Amino acid sequence: MTLNVVTLVGRVGSDPDVKYFESGAVKCRLSLAVNRPTNKTDKPDWFNLELWDKRAEVAANYVRKGSLIGVKGSLKIDHWQDSKTGADRSSPMIRVDRLDLLGSKQDRDTSGLDSFEDDEF
Predict the structure, then answer these.
(1) 103 vs 21, which has greater pLDDT?
(2) Which of 2, 9, 64, 88 could lock onto 70 through a cystine, CB 3.0 to 4.6 A?
(3) Quick one: average pLDDT of 7-21?
(4) How confident is the model at residue 39 (pLDDT cuts 50, 70, 90)?
(5) Domain count, the chain
(6) Can you tell me the mean pLDDT for 16-32?
(7) Is residue 1 part of a domain?
(8) Bigger pLDDT: 13 vs 42
(9) Number of CB atoms found within 10 A of residue 63's CB
């Protein structure tokens, strides 16, 4: 059995970076700051998030820097070659399958939209 599930709750570090492709696909990237519950004085852990299609559009429309969100997804490692040095690079990324808008309704004004999951869209 294999399992690759990541669940995080935190605050968004910057406004969404959204890209629209000719194929009609939409990709959104966000950074998420997550505090450790055991030690409030530590700096938060930062995670890079990647959302696609309907969840990407929802994030683009309703998520802003400082928004409180919950996500569920899987860990993937992006690999590329540095264009300047030619060195191999990698970065962990969370591919989001579920997005929950957790701030107050006033913060997000989503007209009742709260959770966005693969099997819903």
Answers:
(1) 21
(2) 9
(3) 96
(4) confident
(5) 1
(6) 96
(7) no
(8) 13
(9) 23
Using DSSP, state whether 40 is helix, strand or coil.
Answer: coil
Q: How far is 58 from 115, CA to CA, in rounded Å?
A: 10
Q: CA 62 to CA 115: how far, in whole Å?
A: 12
pTM of the model: 0.79
Strands 6-12 and 68-81, by their bridges, are antiparallel
What is the model's pLDDT at position 59?
96
The boundaries of the domain holding residue 94 are 6-120
What's the whole-number average pLDDT of the chain?
87
| Residue 34 φ/ψ region, left for φ over 0, alpha for ψ in the -120 to 50 degree band, beta for the rest | beta
Cross-strand bridge partners of residue 17: 29
Element of type H or E holding 18: strand 17-20
Which pair of tokens denotes residue 4? 């690759």
Spatial separation of the C-alpha atoms in residues 81 and 91, rounded to whole Å: 12
Residue 74 maps to a domain: yes
Tokens of 58: 């929802």
Domain of 82, CATH number, reads: 2.40.50.140
In sequence order, the β-bridge partners of residue 12 are: 32
What does the alpha-carbon distance between residue 96 and residue 117 come to, in Å, rounded to a whole number? 9
